Amino acid sequence: MSTLTNKEKLVEQLQAERNIERIKVSMACKDLIQFCQDHQDGDALSSIISIEYLDSNEIIYYFDNTLASSVLERPDIENI
C-alpha cells in the first residue's frame, strides 16, 4: 500500500475514534463490578474459594468449600 493510503486509513480510524462516546473510568469500573456481581452465579471461576498445589503437576480447586470433582493438571507456564 502506498503511504497516502495508509495515512487515509489512519485519518478514518482517528475520526471514528473521535466520535466514540466516552465515560469516566470510575463509571466503567462500577458498571463492570455490577455486571460481575449480576452474573457470578453462572461463573465457575468467581466461586473458587481456594486452590491447592499438590505437587509440580496437579492443582485442586475448591468451590464453595467442596472439593472439585477431579484434580486438574497444572499449566506449564515456565515453557511459554
From TrEMBL:
Membrane topology classification: Lipid-anchor
GO process terms (BP): G protein-coupled receptor signaling pathway
SUPFAM superfamilies cross-referenced by the UniProt entry: Transducin (heterotrimeric G protein), gamma chain
Highest rank taxon of the organism: Eukaryota
An example Gene Ontology CC term for this record: heterotrimeric G-protein complex
Gene3D superfamilies reported in the protein's UniProt record: Transducin (heterotrimeric G protein), gamma chain
Keywords tagged on the record: Cell membrane, Lipoprotein, Membrane, Transducer
PROSITE patterns cross-referenced by the UniProt entry: G_PROTEIN_GAMMA
GO molecular function ontology, one term from the record: G-protein beta-subunit binding
Localisation: Cell membrane
Main location: membrane
Subunit structure: G proteins are composed of 3 units; alpha, beta and gamma.
Family: Belongs to the G protein gamma family.
Function comment: Guanine nucleotide-binding proteins (G proteins) are involved as a modulator or transducer in various transmembrane signaling systems. The beta and gamma chains are required for the GTPase activity, for replacement of GDP by GTP, and for G protein-effector interaction.
Name of the protein in its database record: Guanine nucleotide-binding protein subunit gamma
Protein species of origin: Rotaria sordida
